[in-house]
């Protein structure tokens, strides 16, 4: 019960968080010039470089999640009937968050 959504969606969430953080760094760096802070050139440079690094990290995570998604096992969720992707031995449905497994030793007896 440590995950609340599917593994692919967790990777996408972290990619989104990094992208928004990168945009925030870039906006904060640009705001230093707009509001004429002392040393605004240095603050802007640092903000833009940090923003670029986090945006590149976001791009790498999205690329990795996409590559994992192409090789993921597709199966139909027994609860909601939607076609979902599964990474590893256990995962959650992308739609209804039901725990799924292909390993009989991991399955719960109903």
UniProtKB/TrEMBL annotation:
<dbReference type="Pfam" id="PF11023">
    <property type="entry name" value="DUF2614"/>
</dbReference>
<keyword id="KW-1003">Cell membrane</keyword>
<keyword id="KW-0472">Membrane</keyword>
<protein>
    <submittedName>
        <fullName>Uncharacterized protein</fullName>
    </submittedName>
</protein>
<keyword id="KW-1133">Transmembrane helix</keyword>
<dbReference type="InterPro" id="IPR020912">
    <property type="entry name" value="UPF0295"/>
</dbReference>
<feature type="transmembrane region" description="Helical">
    <location>
        <begin position="41"/>
        <end position="65"/>
    </location>
</feature>
<feature type="transmembrane region" description="Helical">
    <location>
        <begin position="12"/>
        <end position="35"/>
    </location>
</feature>
<keyword id="KW-0812">Transmembrane</keyword>
């Amino acid at each position: 019960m440590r995950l609340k959504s599917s593994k692919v969606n967790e990777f996408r969430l972290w990619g989104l968080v990094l992208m928004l953080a990168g945009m925030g760094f870039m906006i904060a760096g640009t705001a230093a010039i707009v509001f004429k802070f002392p040393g605004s050139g240095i603050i802007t440079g640092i903000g833009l470089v940090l923003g670029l690094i986090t945006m590149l990290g976001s791009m790498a995570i999205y690329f990795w999640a996409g590559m994992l998604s192409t090789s993921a096992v597709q199966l139909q969720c027994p609860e909601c009937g939607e076609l979902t992707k599964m990474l590893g031995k256990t995962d959650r449905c992308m739609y209804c968050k039901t725990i799924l497994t292909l390993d009989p030793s991991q399955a719960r007896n109903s």
